[in-house]
């Protein structure tokens, strides 16, 4: 899917997609005398590599410049056609080279060391695989639109072409001539051409459902078969059995006996959509089927009747994904319009678990009652609410179905549908309510209760463990007499929570006993779930309707998407503690907000609209800090609990798109502050980079920086009076004063054991306690004396850092020396400090004093000072009258004064802020 670059999010992975409508290819590789088969599948602008045995994902290629239309493969390389470019991928990962063409590619075929390409203008191009140069270019004709190609076995330099009008030709691409045009023509488009194990025999599939097994040498059909839909795939067994399999556009699979020329059997609805490929593994009765319903299946034809038996299924949602929710840090649960619920792992691409399909009863019970599966199946799921608190003991997920009153329970621990279908008796009893539907669901923070809002304004509470109805929340306690559906008798009914459909149910992040309901009537109500009574309400002053509502789990904020006739949608943030609106985003040009989401830390609010944008607003500054443009509108999104990843759903897409949050991984991110009415377009994406808009910097530590117009903060120092940290991780300086204790603790407890046996090439002699290595014999005593003197000289040498420190005289020289020690590891810094002679201590402290005056790297300065005082404490306490001791005393006094001058204002300010924050947290405002 096409998308624009983002300042905050980077593409991470795509979950749930197995294959696409493009036809895959099969290849065999030999490594260490072992043959292994693999399946190369094009998906969007990527190429996926699966093992043929278990359909396990092996590799995913880099993004290709366009959507891949077809792929072919040799044992050593993969060729993928992406638009008018052919990409060469030796390992299905990196693009080694590209071959540009004039028109988009439609078909590709390998013939020896040649590659045949057919483009959308029906031109036939011959390329050399070794040099990648164009050898032949045959222009096509408008009256012969190529719809299928195949290379007949043993036909040198020949290519069989099928056309849209049913005609077929044999083309000699070396002489650029049509060798033969077939006379036995069916007036229906040729959709498939497949080579049989027999020479001169080709399988031909047509759009009207006819299959012909044609002898191309004699131009005579050997046998003909018929499907009810267009033929889209044909495969022939090559293990000695005369069987042919065929697939059509309805997902049906048929097996034909070519000797008896009859149907062996047919499996209907094998796939939910068009079968795009039927590939037999060479020499084995194993077939792989692919379909545009996003599934791959492996079959084995080992039965007596010759019918295939299913071995492996790899599938995703066959229709677009409707909703999703994170069940843990890395696992996301999704529901699709195909009715299925699936679980995926962000970090493990091979983990795909189907939780099932929702129904009124189990398939086992339906089979006992002779009910078809379509009769018991519920409508697609449109909303999921998941809680992790009670996952280990009972159902922990609620699912709301499209235009349905029934709400189902699910369990993510057992990965299956739960035990309850929640439906109030009033909807069965009263005929006037049967056209209603559930419009909102929510789980309590404790995981014990589920809440369901309906289009009638009713709000019910259920016990998740037992499925028992607990209470109905009502605005008024007045009872109404309404006629029942069967005998016309009047029954008493309680009031409703809202006068119009309920659009959302949430719990605020700081109060687990307060349920918040939003209605189309523009009213936000707060309920006590222990008593069922209304505590408070907020009503919009105008004719606004609340369309969506989400809660932030990091604070007390909730966000509402409001609509008003004749105006664009707006976003309102409500503080649940004060019951007041704290932020309003009403100037955004969004006609309809389709999804709303808080970041995990509560710093941003994300809003998606029907015009394919996702806007990210910084809550503290009320600025729009990012905007992402997609190829399709986003209909759902969610952050994982720890905030590293954002998942998005898009209209008619069967994939879940995962985006990495750059602020969680990058040290510093430079952001813009866009105006609310800013609109990004595809044609001016590069021009957007030159727009003069304010920019802000998000630091990795999460500090909120002020926004300044036309300023990019490159470094941590904003002002000369500010005290700044180094920005290095704490592991680089925090443990420096205690590094000696850490090394002492990490010493081995037991002494090294003596070696029982030594290598034969080491000179050793036996002793009473084992072996002793023979010392090398020295030539004379003078050589031994030279070695001892050299070792003594090494002990008296100063380190490079100490030499630079002694030479430093000016402020800039001291700053350069500090930068050198700052780049060292903790152990190296400890060694340098321990190696300092008494004469270099004043210089070392002078360096720290200059850094205090500069107000830079305060954390590292304090760590170096603490380490130096601890290591050289005996020298600092000695009272001597030499010049070095006097200089040391003078510098220590200056450091004490400068330390007090630098830190005192910030220490007082920190104390005041801590006191104020504690008062705000405890005060009842």
UniProtKB/TrEMBL annotation:
Q: WDR36/Utp21 N-terminal domain location, by residue?
A: 40-302
Query: What ranges cover the WD repeats?
Result: 268-299, 495-537
Q: Does the keyword Repeat apply?
A: yes
- A Pfam family annotated for this chain is Utp21
**Which PROSITE patterns does this UniProt record tie to the protein?**
WD_REPEATS_1, WD_REPEATS_2, WD_REPEATS_REGION
Keywords per UniProt: Repeat, WD repeat
Q: Does the keyword Repeat apply?
A: yes
Q: Which GO terms describe its biological process?
A: rRNA processing
The source's superkingdom equals Eukaryota
GO CC terms, sorted: Pwp2p-containing subcomplex of 90S preribosome; small-subunit processome
Q: Report the residue ranges that make up the WDR36/Utp21 C-terminal domain in this protein.
A: 723-921
SUPFAM superfamilies in alphabetical order: WD40 repeat-like (SSF50978)
InterPro entries, per this entry? WD40/YVTN_repeat-like_dom_sf, WD40_repeat_CS, WD40_repeat_dom_sf, WD40_rpt, WDR36-Utp21_N, WDR36/Utp21_C
* Cross-referenced PANTHER family: WD REPEAT-CONTAINING PROTEIN 36
This chain belongs to the protein called Small-subunit processome Utp21 domain-containing protein
